[in-house]
Amino acid sequence: VKEKVEFEVEGMSCAACANRIEKTLNKMAGVFQANVNFALKRAAVAYNPAEVTPEEMIKRIDQLGFKLSLKE
Ligand code: 9UX
């Protein structure tokens, strides 16, 4: 199963921040593909809901010092 979720990203100060977030999400078990757009302050993640949840992504990225909020 593949689900997609979109987040708004708060706290990014430079494009390397987007790369840090993207790499961290891509390393999480159950994440197929994460893309973070610095200019748009958006993150899009394709994931397996049986392995990982958007809430776990939010918690993981909070540890890096950025805030993800679900976009509906
Ligand atoms: Mo840029 Mo971000 O110098 O975590 S990498 S502010």
Short description:
By secondary structure, the chain is α+β, with helices and mostly antiparallel strands. 31% of the residues lie in helices and 35% in strands. The chain has two helices and four strands; from the N terminus they run E-H-E-E-H-E.
Order of helices and strands: EHEEHE
Basic shape: globular
In percent, how much strand structure appears in the residues? 25-35%
Q: Give the biggest beta sheet.
A: 4 strands, antiparallel
Terminal CA distance reads: 20 Å
* Radius of gyration, in angstroms, nearest whole number: 11 Å
Mean pLDDT: 97
Find the count of extended strands (DSSP E, 2+ residues). 4
Structural class: alpha+beta
Helix content: 25-40%
Ligand list: dioxo(di-mu-sulfide)dimolybdenum
Looking across the biggest beta sheet, what order are the strands in? 2-3-1-4
